[in-house]
Amino acid sequence: MAISGTSMGPKSLTLVLVLACLTCMLSGRVEGKDIMVGDGNWKLDYNYTAWAESNMFMVGDTLVFNYTKGIHNVHSVTGAEFKDCSGKGSIVLESGNDRVALKTAGNMWFLCSKAEGEHCKKGMKFKITVLPATTDLAPAAPPASPPQSKAAPSVSSAASAFMVVILACMAIFLL
Ligand SMILES: [Cu+2]
């Protein structure tokens, strides 16, 4: 934490409160969500392009591919490999219940390479753009006990969100 001064004026105190509340609020959202690919099945005859475009993907989320083992597979490939369905990619999954954690922001391409790429050519492919998680703002390790005990509220996330708004307004006026 940048705030480690010994003199705690009202401004820095407010800042501490705001940061503490933000941390409190964001920490409740650290865990991403599981995103079932498609309608819950990784299969032929489904428009994965439309599906991908209608979903939002964030760092911390996990893609889940469900299919009968042996019938399909999942490759994480480059954009070039994606275009002509030639990709083998660095990640090959084939368990039938494959989970891909989205760890970094940016583009990712997935395809099924079964039947010499025919599954891919028939639509078992999609691209996603992984967005940075808002939780990136939260420090990796929570700050050691804040200087003021009242800076550590244990309230519901809705209430803490409300408090953040109030405190943010206070901060704007005070800073
Ligand atoms: Cu397939």
Write a short abstract of this structure.
With 175 residues, the protein is α/β, with parallel strands linked by helices.
Describe this structure in words.
This protein has 175 residues and is α/β, with parallel strands linked by helices. It has a domain at 34-135: Cupredoxins -  blue copper proteins (Immunoglobulin-like), CATH 2.60.40. 29% of the residues lie in helices and 20% in strands. The protein has helices at 10-27, 48-53, 79-83, 118-121, 157-174, and strands spanning 34-36, 57-58, 62-66, 74-77, 91-93, 97-101, 106-111, 125-131. A 5-stranded mixed sheet has the order 2-8-7-4-5. It has a 3-stranded mixed sheet with strand order 1-3-6, with no helix packed on it. Helix 1 runs antiparallel to helix 5. It starts with 9 loop residues before the first helix and ends with a helix. 23% of the residues are buried.
Question: What order do the strands of the largest sheet run in, or round the barrel if closed?
Answer: 2-8-7-4-5
Annotated CATH homologous superfamily of the domain at 34-135: Cupredoxins -  blue copper proteins
- Main beta sheet, described? 5 strands, mixed
Give the proportion of residues in helices.
25-40%
From the spread of the alpha carbons, the general shape counts as: elongated
